[in-house]
Each structure stands twice: as structure tokens, then as C-alpha cells.
Amino acid sequence: MKIRKSENIWGWVFISLALSGLLLFILYPIIYSLYLSTFSTRGYLKHFVGLGNYKRLFQDSNFLLSLKNIFIIFIIQVPIMLFLALIFAFLLNNPKLKFRGFYRTALFLPAVTSLVAYSVVFKMMFSTQGLVNNILLSLHIIKEPIRWLLDPFWAKVTLIIAMTWRWTGYNMMFYLAGLQNIPLEIYEAAEIDGASKTVQFFKITIPLLKPIILFTTIMSTIGTLQLFDEPMNLAAGVVTGSSVGPGNSLLTPSVYIYNVCFKYVPNFGYASAISYIIVLIAAILAIIQFKVAGDRK
Amino acid sequence: MRKVLFVLLILSVLVSLGVAAKVTIWCWDPNFNVAIMQEAAERYKAMHPDVEFEIVSMAKADVEQKLNTILASGVKKGLPEIVLIEDYNAQKYLQSYPGSFADLTKKFNFKEFSPYKVKLMTLNGKVYGVPFDSGVAGWFYRRDYFKEAGIDESELRNITWDKFIELGKIVKEKTGKYMMAGDPYDGGLMRILLQSAGSWYFDKNGKPYIKDNPVLKEAVRLYKEIQDSGISKEVSGWNEWVAAFNNGDVASVITGVWIVGSIKAEKSQSGKWGVLPIPRLNLPGAVNASNLGGSSWYVLEHSENKDVAIDFLREIYAKDVDFYQKILIERGAVGSWIPAQNGPAYREPDPFFGYQRIYLDFTDWMDKIPPVDYGIFTYEADAALMGVMPDVYNGNLTIEKALEMAEKQFLNTIGY
After folding, report:
1. Contact B186 A259 (CB under 8 A)
2. Which of B185, B241, B414 sits opposite A247 (nearest CB)?
3. Cβ of B64 and A262 within 8 Å?
4. pLDDT tens digit string along A73-115?
5. By the CB < 8 Å criterion, does A61 face chain B?
6. Residue B211 CA neighbour count, 13 Å, CB half
7. Which of A144, A215, A148, A151 is nearest to A177 (CA)?
8. In this structure, what are the phi and psi dihedrals at residue B74, rounded to the nearest 5 degrees?
9. What whole-number distance in Å separates Cα of residue B382 and Cα of residue B413?
């Protein structure tokens, strides 16, 4: 069908408002920050360094540490979370299950809580004399309180637990939606053929959900790369907040960008360069994931 | 009808022309500097009824974010007349945004303020701020716990940190209480230690001074020693730290004078506390006095009512002795305007501290704080140092090696 010219013009008019907002508030900052990333700035003093900021990045041990930190979190947290989400979705999709609505709500509820609020609550629960240690101690699972937020290793564990609590239900919703599209007849047929629930899960559910699993993986990858609220709040310090978590163990690129802009001598040019590297990494990881899991149609 | 509207319009324009100058102030602690500014504004308004004040209370991080973004954008609008800046950040703002803050050199008699405060806001011989509260450090201690441990108070005065740790072990053994509480990765104590010996992360020329800094080396050794000796109760976050002394878990607290309010918040402990000079480093030139934190007022050069703001700060913060007595009693704010320290409130014995005249002691120690140039990279240096502390604690790195790494890391972080 051909669109008449006048209709075409009106179409542009109608979307022009949204489009100009998009250009002004999304496209312009993206381009401007690319330009800015070729400068080194101190407040409003700036001088041109070309690719200097990008070169500097690869020698900046704090930046490399932040990458290492999120890489560890990414490798451990994302698979655990997505696998849990998949299992929950599979269980909740069973029409015979009682109180389905209740379980769904309970699992999804963390996803609507504020990032800051839940981080603060986790910080309280995981303090050395907090709820979690008290429960573990009274159940005699541990003999000494775990130094959750005072030890570089346990601080990461705390962060992973917190993130898994917050985001599992969110991903589960995508899987549930995906499961609705898988006809129950397939499961019925499998049942008649004598396939167990486990076999059904691995041979039917996972292959048929592949596009959605890919989608959630990419979303979680980007989410991990942009991780900010949780480490920022879990690491809030005593008087000075010198390091982000014990020994900078919770330092993420986004927190580092924030520090470079507002806590350290303000260098917006360098911060822009870091953001561009993050975008690049996200793009590369997404391409790899597409190649590994994507359909070859 | 139209005529009436027109007249009203003219009138409103006239009224707005005659309307008072408005002074906007950004600060961050509702129980401290915000409340104090409100008191100051009341006093100024009593003399100048035509001046209006808008005191905006924000989180400290928000003040810094807003200030940074507006100044960096180069916009002249949207900034307040007066902003509160933490002392460690003063040079960073002055050097990153030259020309944005009003030069107050000739507007105040800076000889009347504590020298170490004036120094940190001086750039190229010009003074850019009005010194506000002091972070003079003290050693708050529980008289009852030390008595129980059989330690006489005369043993506690002007001691070294090694002695402090030794006493801490005795206290722990006899009373079961920790000597102190702290986050092993917090740089607060580090700053107290460094300044007490007149040193910082940088030398006099602003060059990084980490690897070969004997004071820093000693300070890191003490951090490890305190950790290893088990005299410090580990906490993470401000609330846990305050709870540690409010609950009576610790025998002492070493920090800035601004903590008085939080200590006194636990009324049941009245009479049990005392204050001593902080321990000193076992190094030449080290004293039993130091500083942690503190902040000052700065006037924005391009703000609308700059002159009114300066006059306001001068009339209250550099003239009103009575004002300083009131904020000391009500808020525990030790100002750094020296004439105020002759006022009656500074001599008042405090029943909470066993009728000790604590503020007389604090002002005495304040004079002994070695002035230090904080430079502009304090937070970067802090992060670099605390980044290597895990390996110092578990013994993977010697202190020398750790400081070498910290300096390298620090140099990578800066660079402009």
C-alpha cells in the first residue's frame, strides 16, 4: 500500500515533538560526549588530548579493577540468576499449581522495589551483627560471624545475593511470557512418550525459549556493565567512604565514572571516554552472545 | 477592567523592584550547618529586615553534583549566593573552576581565624572562603571502662599510638570491651594520623608523596597493628559506627569534635565520658593534635546578591560572638573565628563529660593542629591507598611494596 504524500507529512508532524526530544536529549549527548572524550578536563578548563584518554584508560589500574570486578559478577551472577528465573518460570507455568498468583507476585515484587531502598536494607541485613549473621549463628551453621561487607570476597558475595534477589523475578516474567507461547500439547505428547519433567525442561522448554534467553542474557549483560546503585549504597562508608567496598572490591565502571565526575577532580572528558569503552564492551559481548546462541536463519 | 489589570501590572513591577535582595544558601546537614545557617539568617534579618534568605538543605553528594555540573557547564544562573564546601575539597573547586568564587581577601580580617583553616582556602595569595566549623580531633573515652580496667587517667594523657594499642589490649582483657570501632577501609583515621605529623599524601609542591613518606608508612603500620591486635570493633557504615559507642561496646572514639552531638545523644551515658588529646605518632614533629573534616562557606562570584551575602557572612561569622556561643551550646559547633572562643560557652563545664570543660580543651588543641596543604587529589589518594589495604592486612604485601603500588595506582588515576 502506498502512503499518500500528505499523510506522510502529517505523520512526520505528529512524531516531530517526540523526535526532537529524542534528538536533543539522546542523540546530542551521545555525540557531544564522543567529542568531549577527546579532551582532558579539570572543571571547566580543558585541553585537547585526542585519543589520550583512551590510552590512559588501559593504564588506569582503578578502571581495570572495575572491569575485573564486574566481569566476576557477570560470570557468576548472571547464569545463577537466569537459571533460577527459568526454573521458577517453569514451575509457575504448571496450571495445576495452587496459589500461582501468590508465588508470581512474591517473586516479582523485588523487581518493583527501589534500587537504593533495597540496597540499604541489604546493607543492614548483611552487617556483621545483622540479621543474616544472627540467623546463621543461631542455626549453628557458622561459628564466627561472616565479615560480609568488610572482606573483599564476601562483599562480592553479598552483592551477588542482593542482585539475584532483586532481578530474578524480573527475568522470570520474560520467561513466563515466553512459556505461554509454547503449546501445552508438546508437553502432553512428551508426557505420553514417557519424558520426565527434567527431560521436558531441558529438551522442550530451554530450546523453545532460546530467543528469550538470549534477550535476557543481553539485557543482564548490559545491566551488569551499568551496575551502579547497589555497589554505591552497599559500600557507603563510615566517615570518608575512601574505597568502594573493602579494597575497592565493589568498584564498577559506572561508580568510577561517578567518582571521576563528582568525587575526584572533575574530569568529564575522561568520564566520557570510560562511557564509550563501556558501550564498546557491551556491543562486543552482545555480538558474541548472538553468535553463540542466535538462530542461523 | 483592562485598565485595572494594567495598573496592577505596573504596581507589581514596582513592588518587585523594591523587593528585598534574596540570598540562597546550599548546605547539607539539617541538624548542623543548615540549622546554624538558619540561626545566622535570623540574626541578620533582625538587623536588615529587607534581606530574604533561602536555605536549601540537600545531601552532601547532591550539593557537590549540582555545583560541579552547573559550574562546568559555564552557566551563570541557578547557582546560590553561598555554598558550603568540605575543607578537603576546597582547593579542588578553587582550581577547577577559577574565577567562580568571590575573592574575600580584603573583605575579612583573616588573622582572626584559625590559620590552618585559612590556609586551605588560599590560592595564589588570595583567600576565597569564610572558615566555618573546625574538625579538631579528640580522644573521647569512657571513664568508667578505664577505671574498671585499672588504668589511671594520668596514664592516658599525651601518649603514643603504640601505648594506645597496648592499653587497648588491657581494656579488652579486663572489661571485654573494644578500645575503639572503625571500618578497616575508611580513610578517616589515616587523615588524623597524617595531619598530626604535619604530613599529607602530597609534599609542599603538590607532588605525590606516598611511596617514601615516613609518616604514611608509620600510619599504615598502625592501621595493620590496630587490625591485628583485635582492639577495634569492625563496623561498616556510619550508623553501625555510632551504634558501637551509643551501645557502650567501645571504650573510646577518636574523631573530629563534630561527633559530640552523636555521643551526647545517648543520655544514659551522661557523666561517663571524658575527652583527651589524641595519641601521637612516634615520629619527630608529631603532636597530640589533629583534624578530621570541617567545612567552610564560599560565595559565588557571579551570583546576583554577592555583596549582600558577603556582608551577611561578615556581620555574623566574623562579628557575632554571641552567635558562636549559641551554636556551640545547641549544636556542638566549634567555630574557627578565634574571638568567639573567649565567650562564656567555651568555658562551661559539661556534666555529660563529667564536668570537664571540653571546649576549652578543644580550642587549646586547635591551636596546635599542624597546617597541611590538602591539595586537590585527597580522594584519589585515599582510594589508591585503601585499594591496597586488603593485601597489607593479610600479609601478602609488605608496607613498602603496598605504598609503592598505591603511588603507582594514584599516578594512573590523576593525570590531566
Report:
1. no
2. B185
3. yes
4. 999 999 999 999 999 998 998 888 889 889 999 999 999 999 9
5. yes
6. 10
7. A215
8. 80, 5
9. 11
Greater pLDDT, B375 or B4: B375
The amino acid at residue A206 is I
Task: Please report the pLDDT score of residue A245 as a whole number.
Answer: 87
Q: Judge: A240–B414 Cβ closer than 8 Å, yes or no.
A: no
> Does the pLDDT value for residue B387 go beyond 90?
no
Return residues 305-344 of B near A (CB < 8 Å): none
Q: Which residue has the cell 583527651?
A: B276
pTM value is 0.88
How far out from the chain centre does Cα B203 lie?
Answer: 21
A127 with B408: Cβ contact below 8 A:
no
Q: Are B164 and B170 in contact (CB under 8 A)?
A: no
Q: Do B238 and A123 touch (CB under 8 A)?
A: no
Q: List the grid coordinates of B196.
A: 598530626
Q: Which residue of B has its CA nearest to A267?
A: B416
What is the crossing angle of helices A100-108 and A152-180, to 10°? 140
Closest residue in B to A249 (Cα–Cα): B387
Prediction ipTM score: 0.86
Neighbouring CB atoms inside 10 A of B221's CB total 15
Position B10 scores a pLDDT of 56
Q: How many CB pairs under 8 A join A and B?
A: 145
pLDDT tens for each residue of B8-42:
555 555 455 555 789 999 999 888 999 999 999 99
Comparison of pLDDT for B329 and B2, the residue scoring more:
B329
Confidence of residue B206 (pLDDT cuts 50, 70, 90): confident
Tell me the C-alpha distance between A50 and B255, whole Å: 45
CA-CA-CA-CA dihedral for B44, B322, B335, B345, to nearest 10: -160
Cβ–Cβ gap B255/A239 under 8 Å: yes
d(C-alpha B155, C-alpha B144), whole Å:
15
Q: Is A264 in contact with B380 (Cβ distance < 8 A)?
A: yes
Test the A interface: residue of B94, B180, B236 with most A CBs within 10 Å: B236
Burial of B130 (0-12, 13-18, 19+ CB in 10 A): buried
Low-confidence ranges of chain A (pLDDT < 70): 1-3, 237-241, 294-297
Contact by Cβ (8 Å): B257, B366? no
* A237 and B CB contact within 8 Å: yes
